[in-house]
Amino acid sequence: ADTHHSANGFDYGPDGYLYYQSGIFLVNNVETPWQEAQLSGTSAMYRFNPRTHRYSLHAANPPNPHGGDFDYWGYHYATSATGGEAYQVREDGGGKFKMHPLLDKTVRPVPSSGIISSTHFPERNNGNFIILNSIGFLGIKQYTLKNTDGVLWGTETDDLLVSSDSNFRPTDFKIGDDGAMYVADWSNPIIGHMQHNVRDPNRDHEHGRIYRITVPGRPLQDRVKIDGEPIEALLDVLKHPVDGVRLRARIELSERNTDEVIAAAQKWLKQFDPAKKEDAHHLLEALWLHEQFNVVNEDLLNILLKSPQPDAQRAAQRVKYMWEIEGKFEKKVAAAATAHSGHSAESVLQEARDYLKQETSPPPRMDGDTFELHIQTLKEQMRYDRREFTVLAGMKVRLIFSNPDAMDHNLIMVEPDSAAKVAVAAMKMEVTGEGTKKQWRPESDSILFASRLLRHGETQEIEFSAPRTPGRYDYLCTFPGHWQLMRGAMIVVEKLDRDLLAANQLTEEAPAASGRQMVEMWTLDRLKDDVAALTTKRSYDAGQQMFQIAGCTKCHDPAGTPETVGPDLRDVGKRYTPLVLLGHILDPSLEVADAYKTYVVETKNGKEFYGQIKELDGDRLRVLEDPLKPDTAVILTRADIKSMDPIAVSPMPTDLLNTLNKNEILDLLAFLVAGPMPARTASK
Question: Which helix (H) or strand (E) holds 586?
Fold first, then answer.
């Protein structure tokens, strides 16, 4: 499902390199003539020189980077889609580059970003950095940039574009040769892969829109002829003030003969005075042209290193830095292009494992008269690690909430039986556009307290007094699409042994069940060939053991006893082929039987309940919020119910197989296909 982690955001730099970014769930394995094969699972920006075939990891940007651009002076920018962070990419010494924060982010996720450069747009817009956001805030944020000795910092200004259409998903933009801005709108009601199945029929595969933004009363940008023009004419285009026009001229020049381009450039640059600031950028374009064509010109480099224009000096310093990395000078200062190369396949897999690892929350404890507990998010699972805790009525509580996940999350504690109502109110904020500003905390008397919307790595300490009224007080994440999975409960009681209070709290283990190490984030494509060749000669006993280790016994009994909370698996081998069955295990929401669907139930007196529907008789329904805790069910009469809306998300976890190796998964499938004990000969 994580196709958005694939190579994206390609930018052709003024240095002739092609820059792109790639997320944590993919491996970049590239062989070049310059060094041993580079194998990296790092979420990062990478660079490739199409002329020389040099390739390298450029700068880490975890976990799901998207968007990038270069400005007039060659300053480099990038964004991270999942977290919404924006960066300036700068040299970091030793042949490396590093992402440095560019602004205080207020929205996420960010599919694209870049610099406005157009004579059609007013001067107040030119040079501004923009980010396109596709959830919550649906539009384009705009930032002015302050340059302090080459360090850029963005300050938010007027939004460039805002939409009230909840399906508006701006994903990319370009400035056309007419100076207008063209914005690609994915225009899809469903964009998540955790909240909705990839094959959800509500996904729109046919529609998309491109918007053209112009400024009333201002003339469009004059079109510049580029394709097929003589080299001398193209060199003069490099004087143009618009970044995109000069970029197209560089691309056109890249297909011309190297000797002819360099000879013409040497003649062209003689018209400029190195002592004049106004000529600095033209000389810099000539230096970039040499870099693009892999021709070292130390005289021109030294002229620009002493330029009266500081931005030109810094751009020349970057050219020098890159030539040093490539070993262009007689004294090779830092040939460090191999700094990230040569990783073994095992080390790449270890990078993915390390990314998912996290420390278990410390156990709750009594600190004087205050009950202290930790709750953290589980990486890439959209769940809290602590599903429940118990406190005394009126007790002082210190809650330490941490978010090691890449996505933003909050924690909102609500009154009993009001989680669904608060979650729905938060979802409506996406339509009104207030969600981001209010950090997805809706106006509701049912909210006891709420954390901030925490970014990756942030922690917040919240102190409160437990309610005086005993009951089950839910806490949930109200960011759109999260609440269905990210829920827990604070149980308030009148009497409880304080010595046992801190000792009997349950925490969900991270990252996987049974204390086993993660093996792999298995996908259907990764296993389908082995499953297709599945023979009957597997171990039934080993498969039965895997059934327990994977946590299946929490909800299923292969013998089909009626007390289980999951579907009957006795004839699952007759209903599904092994490959289809594996698909359902990896993606439980692919098909949810009616008896196990989750509903939001609203009663006529305004209460809302969340859970599975179990019919007791013709007039009464049982709403089972937690199938593992049937005693928490609520019984309602049909006459009391105003509405029942299903949610297309299975309560079954999606990561059950991640701690099993391939053979163990095949044994588990054989066990399920064979059926209960009397049919076990099928797997021998």
Answer: helix 578-586
* Cα gap 347→355, rounded to integer Å: 12
The answer to whether the CB of 86 falls within 8 A of the CB of 102 is yes
DSSP structure class, residue 16 = S
Looking at the chain, how many residues does it have? 684
Tokens found for residue 660 = 């099993």
Query: Which tens digits make up the pLDDT trace of 251-271?
Result: 999 999 999 999 999 999 999
Spatial neighbors of 30 by CB under 8 A, at least 6 apart, are: 37, 38, 48, 55
End-to-end CA distance of the chain: 35
Q: Which residues contact 141 (CB under 8 A, 6 or more apart)?
A: 106, 107, 130, 131, 133, 156, 159, 160
Question: The tokens 């409506």 sit on which residue?
Answer: 428
Long-range Cβ contact pairs of 301-307 (< 8 A, separation 24 or more): 303/274, 304/274, 304/280, 306/274, 307/274, 307/277, 307/280, 307/283
Q: At what angle do helices 298-305 and 280-292 cross, to 10 degrees?
A: 140
* Contact (Cβ atoms closer than 8 angstroms) between residue 229 and residue 252: yes
Give me the amino acid identity at 668.
L
Contact 518, 511 (CB under 8 A): yes
- What 677-684 contacts at long range (C-beta under 8 Å, 24+ apart), as own/partner pairs, is 677/559, 680/540, 682/536, 682/573, 683/536, 683/537, 683/538, 683/539, 683/540, 683/543, 684/536, 684/537, 684/540
Q: Are 55 and 44 in contact (CB under 8 A)?
A: no
- Model confidence over 612-659: pLDDT tens digits? 787 767 788 888 766 656 776 888 898 888 988 876 556 666 667 766
Q: Which of 627, 664, 385 lies closest to 510, judged by CA?
A: 385
Strand bridging mode 151-156 / 112-115: unpaired
Closest to 12 (Cα-Cα) out of 363, 350, 345, 249? 249
Query: What does the pLDDT look like over 104-114, one tens digit per residue?
Result: 999 988 999 99
For residue 142, what are the contacts with CB-CB under 8 A and spacing of at least 6?
116, 125, 128, 129, 130, 156, 157, 158, 159, 160
Identify the DSSP state of 30.
E
* 670, pLDDT greater than 80: yes
| Backbone torsions φ then ψ of 531, nearest 5 degrees | -70, -40
Q: Determine the Cα angle at 384 with ends 372 and 408, to 5°.
A: 105
